[in-house]
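Risk register update: the risk of archive-format incompatibility is retired. Evidence:
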Amino acid sequence: MRILHTMIRVGDLDKSIAFYTETLGMQLLRRQDYPEGRFTLAFVGYGPESAGAVLELTHNWIRRATTWAMVMAISRWPCRMRRRPAPRSNGWAARSSARPAR
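Archived output:
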């Protein structure tokens, strides 16, 4: 068993690809847009995926401000949020799960 890839979520995909390829000397192995899911995946590595582990750079097209607006809209629904998003140094932590109000 071996590690195939490690996922890293990035805010600016083009700048991230430039960093990994130009600064660290990795190669862009593949890049694919997924319009139905509103995200793009790019895989970078020092060799082919069949030979070793690579990095999966994930870029979500929805911005954090949009995510925060959605959370605020959901908070007006008749439900309870177990954990509300909180500001962090690297952006908003928007992992929340909502349950119906009892």
